[in-house]
Structure formats: structure tokens, C-alpha cells
């Protein structure tokens, strides 16, 4: 049984880490981009960002004043038990979100869409989002918080098999160019692409590809992994860099996730995680151990399973 | 690669200091700056509420910003990171606001278009400064020496309230419009547009079109 107090205190620590500490994989990716960037203004912007990450850690203040919309991804083993059950878990995550908004502080971004009611704590109807995943075996819980920023840089389109790869490329470029102008997408970013599923799942896949996969990770399908590399290069060949200035750094990495879709369609979504790729992860065990990391490791073979049954062999190999 | 020119600028700048600014200059601000976005504009301009500051005497710098901040129970403030929010959404209030407040520096994200600069900024002697990144929230937070006041928090909430910040070499910001009404982002877009056809080579438009769709890649999504 995992103590509920430990879940809440861990969640509060994660909110703090996500807002303040740039994940190492993204930092390495951005440093590599800064090294090859030769646009005057783009280079200045990337250097300023690198200084900003340092300042945030030194001062323990948020990297960006827009601290995004905090949300939770929760993953559990098949044997996991939580003190108080799922209702207590959700209450703890909502409390942690509110407490950390006040504590760090974060910007209380969440308001009612029509009445603009603001509780000043990032909690409200449907906020924070809490999404779930499960893994065979295990008694742990993974708490993953993502504070995705930006109202721009995300789009969806229903494509069709006849659009093919060239149609996918076109929509990808359209999204990067349209929202990259003036830097509205807060690039260079991790770009996530969702392909297939239904409209809602396609959006979910693309968002998770951007927010739950690290720089340098590869899709387990080698042909999709090849496309990821090709798309990264394509995005960086546009001639646009940080803030939409002339440059060559638009995409720190491109991650693609797919889901089976209607035979007549080829849904596509594009998502830009921002220059402050805020994510933090901890695995909490029933014996009270807490292991912090920055890789959500969400897309396991089990999450991408292809057919009816999950072979017990794979579980044994864990 | 040349480094951009760095300039220290007062938040109550002289016309000469403003005239000296060139597109792409990097600016650090000293003096008082206040945040104002849709909440403040609607309250001041549509509800005709009295602006709770002496403007432009105290500050001629309007920041499109909501800080990551907290108001403590004893009334003191905790200000963490500070970054701008996209300015194009506030364009409809700006001419009236500039007349009323005497603002000479509009500070935000993404800028406006050159038409707006020429019609509304140039006649009023105002300049647009863009934040950098986006966003360098921790660096800008360091440049806030003190939070002098927060107005209209009760009415508008933390995110939309009018925060009064004392800036000490706060930056970096980039000059995104000049006294001729030229637009830095449009200048960059033009250069980039020349190369776009090459990046698009071989791709094809979607089989199913959408209403209002454009293939003109010199278009912008702000407008």
C-alpha cells in the first residue's frame, strides 16, 4: 500500500522541479542546436535561454513566467494499491497542484472558459487533467507532471491515405511555419506528431509524443524512427530559428506516435512543446522509496501493444 | 556572426533615446513598469475605472505580462518568473490606451504588424519591445528589484491584475519596431519566405481542403 501523504508531498516536489529545472535531455539538445546556429539574432536568443535555465536553478524560480497548464500522467503496475484508492489519489494531485501554484510560485493560468473565474491555484473544472496508464507487474506508481505552455503551435488535420507521406510533410511544414513566425510556438521545441487513432486519440498521441518522450528517443518501429530523423532535419531546413528569426534551429527533436485508425483516414496532429520543456517524474514504492527522473518512459512495448493478448513471456522478462 | 548592440533605457524614455533605437537592438530597462493586458484594458477603457497610477509620470512602459507570483497573507509579494504574453490580441485597445496612459514602450511577445506601428505607434512616438526566447522568465525576474504595488487584484485576479515593477537592468528585450514603423518580425519573415519553396519541394496540398485555406506562405496567422 502506498501512503497517500507520500504521494502528495512527492507531487508537490515534482511541480517545483518541472517549473524550475530544465530536463537534461532537452538542455543537451538545445546546446547542440546553439552550437550550429549561425543566425545573429537566433544565436543571441539561444544563448539567453541557456543563461535563463541557469538563473532559474540558481534562484529556484520558474524558468518562464507562463508556467503553462499543469497536468498529471499517472502510471501504475498491475499490483499497485494506493491508500484511500483512486479518489484519494486524485484529491492529492489536485491539492499538490494548488499548493505548488502558491508555493513556487507558478502563474495561476487556469480560468473558466466563459466566466474567466480564477481560483488562483490552477485547479478547476477538469483541471488539472489526470490521465492513466498501466504496466504488467509492479506495485509502484509513476507520477509524471507536465506543464505544457503555449496557446500556439498545435494543430489537427484529417488527411487520407492518398495524401501519403508528402501530404504529412506538407501539414507538418505548414504547422511549423505558420506558428513559428514571430516565435509564437516558442521554438526550438520538441515536436510531437500523432498519426491515426480517432480525432481525440490522434491529439492525445501527438501531445504525448511531444511531452512524454525525451530528446534522442526513437519510436520502436524502425521505419517510423527513420521518419522522425527525416522530419527533424526537414524542420531545421526551413531557414527559421528561435523567435521566428532567420536561423536553422526549429526542432530539437521530432517524436512520432501512431494508433490504428479508420481504414479511410489518416488523422494527423502536430504539437510543439516549448523552450521550457517542463516535465518531472517520480516513481513511488510501497516501502516509501521515491526515485526521481526526467524521462517519463511512457511509451513502453505494453503501451504500444499491437494485438489482442499481451504475451506472459514479456511480463516475465520485466 | 555579429553581436547585437546593448542599450540601457529608462521606462520614462526621452524622445531622443527612443529615436536612437534600431531594430534588433537589445534593451535593458530601468525604472517602473506596469503590467496591463485585456483585464486592465477592459476595466480602464470600457468600464471607465480610474487608473490607479499617475501615468505617464511614473511609467511609460506597458508590459503585456502575467507574472508567476503570489500575494502573501501579510500583503507582501513573492515574484518568481516574469514573461510576456502575445500582444496581437490586445491591439484593439492599444490606441486608446496609449492616448490615456501616455505609454511610449509597449513590451510583450511577438509584436504587432507594421501597419499598426505606422498608424498608431509612430504618431504617438511609441516603440515595441519584445521579450526574448520565449521566455527568459528567470532572467527577467532577476531584473525586478521590487514589486511596488498590485492594483485591481480583487477584481481581476493575479494573472490579470496591474503589477507595478521596479526594474533594475531588467532584460533582455529586443527592439521590434522603430520610429519609422518598421517591423523586425516582418523583416525576418521576408528573408525566410525566400527559402520556403525549397523546404516545401515535393510535398503536396491536402486532398480535402478547408474553408479559408491559404497556400500563401508569406501570410501570417496574427492579423
Notes on the protein architecture:
The complex is a heterodimer of chains A (318) and B (223). Chain A is of the alpha+beta class and 318 residues long. Chain A has two domains: 140 residues; 122 residues, no CATH class. Chain A has eight helices and nine strands. In chain A, strands 2-1-3-8-9 form a five-stranded mixed sheet, covered by helices on one side. A four-stranded mixed sheet of chain A has the order 4-7-5-6. The longest helix of chain A is centred in the N-terminal third of the chain and has 20 residues. Chain A is globular. By secondary structure, chain B is α/β, with parallel strands linked by helices. Chain B has a single domain, classed as Fe-S hydro-lyase, tartrate dehydratase beta-type, catalytic domain (fumarase), CATH 3.20.130. Chain B contains seven helices and nine strands. The longest helix of chain B is centred in the last third of the chain and has 17 residues. Chain B is globular and about 65 Å long. The mean pLDDT of chain B is 94. The interface between A and B is large, with 69 and 63 residues.
Amino acid at each position: 500500500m502506498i501512503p497517500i501523504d507520500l504521494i502528495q508531498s512527492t507531487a508537490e516536489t515534482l511541480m517545483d522541479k518541472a517549473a524550475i529545472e530544465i530536463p537534461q535531455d532537452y538542455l543537451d539538445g538545445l546546446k547542440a542546436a546553439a552550437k550550429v546556429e549561425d543566425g545573429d539574432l537566433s544565436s543571441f536568443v539561444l544563448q539567453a535561454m541557456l543563461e535563463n535555465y541557469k538563473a532559474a536553478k540558481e534562484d529556484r524560480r520558474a524558468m518562464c513566467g507562463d508556467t503553462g497548464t499543469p497536468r498529471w500522467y499517472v502510471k501504475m503496475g498491475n499490483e499497485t494499491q494506493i491508500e484511500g484508492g483512486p479518489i484519494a489519489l486524485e484529491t492529492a494531485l489536485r491539492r499538490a497542484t494548488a499548493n505548488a501554484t502558491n508555493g513556487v510560485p507558478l502563474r495561476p493560468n487556469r480560468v473558466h472558459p466563459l466566466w474567466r473565474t480564477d481560483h488562483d491555484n490552477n485547479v478547476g473544472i477538469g483541471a488539472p487533467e489526470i490521465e492513466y496508464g498501466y504496466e504488467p507487474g509492479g506495485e509502484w506508481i509513476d507520477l509524471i507532471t507536465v506543464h505544457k505552455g503555449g496557446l500556439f503551435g498545435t494543430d489537427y488535420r484529417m488527411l487520407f491515405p492518398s495524401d501519403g507521406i508528402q501530404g504529412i510533410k506538407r501539414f507538418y511544414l505548414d504547422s511549423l511555419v505558420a506558428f513559428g513566425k514571430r516565435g509564437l510556438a516558442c521554438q526550438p521545441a520538441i515536436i510531437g506528431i500523432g498519426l491515426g487513432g480517432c480525432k481525440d486519440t490522434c491529439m492525445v498521441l501527438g501531445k504525448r509524443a511531444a511531452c512524454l518522450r525525451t530528446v534522442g528517443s526513437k519510436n520502436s518501429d524502425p521505419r517510423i524512427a527513420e521518419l522522425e530523423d527525416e522530419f527533424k532535419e526537414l524542420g531545421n531546413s526551413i531557414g527559421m530559428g528561435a523567435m521566428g528569426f532567420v536561423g536553422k534551429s526549429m526542432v530539437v527533436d521530432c517524436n512520432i506516435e501512431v494508433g490504428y485508425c479508420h481504414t479511410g483516414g489518416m488523422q494527423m496532429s502536430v504539437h510543439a512543446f516549448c523552450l521550457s520543456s517542463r516535465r518531472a517524474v517520480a516513481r513511488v514504492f510501497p516501502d516509501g522509496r521515491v526515485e526521481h527522473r526526467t524521462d517519463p518512459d511512457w511509451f513502453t512495448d505494453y503501451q504500444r501493444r499491437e494485438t489482442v493478448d499481451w504475451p506472459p513471456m514479456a511480463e516475465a522478462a520485466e | 556572426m555579429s553581436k547585437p548592440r546593448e542599450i540601457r533605457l529608462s521606462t520614462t524614455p526621452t524622445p531622443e533615446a527612443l529615436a536612437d533605437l534600431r531594430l534588433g537592438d537589445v534593451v535593458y530597462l530601468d525604472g517602473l513598469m506596469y503590467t496591463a493586458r485585456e483585464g486592465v484594458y477592459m476595466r480602464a477603457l470600457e468600464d471607465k475605472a480610474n487608473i490607479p497610477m499617475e501615468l505617464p509620470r511614473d511609467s511609460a512602459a506597458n508590459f503585456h505580462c502575467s507574472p508567476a507570483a503570489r500575494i502573501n497573507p501579510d500583503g507582501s509579494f513573492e515574484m518568481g518568473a516574469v514573461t510576456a504574453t502575445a500582444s496581437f490580441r490586445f491591439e484593439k485597445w492599444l490606441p486608446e490606451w496609449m492616448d490615456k496612459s501616455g505609454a511610449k514602450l509597449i513590451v510583450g511577445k511577438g509584436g504587432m504588424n507594421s501597419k499598426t506601428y505606422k498608424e498608431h505607434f509612430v504618431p504617438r512616438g511609441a516603440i515595441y519591445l519584445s521579450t526574448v526566447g520565449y521566455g527568459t522568465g528567470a532572467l527577467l525576474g532577476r531584473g525586478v528589484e521590487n514589486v511596488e504595488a498590485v492594483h485591481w487584484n480583487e477584481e481581476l485576479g493575479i494573472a490579470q491584475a496591474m503589477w507595478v515593477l521596479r526594474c533594475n537592468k531588467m532584460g533582455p528585450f529586443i527592439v521590434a519596431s522603430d520610429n519609422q514603423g518598421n517591423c523586425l518580425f516582418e523583416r525576418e519573415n521576408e528573408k525566410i519566405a525566400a527559402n520556403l519553396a525549397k523546404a516545401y519541394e515535393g510535398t503536396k496540398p491536402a486532398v480535402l481542403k478547408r474553408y479559408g485555406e491559404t497556400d500563401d506562405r508569406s501570410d501570417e496567422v496574427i492579423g
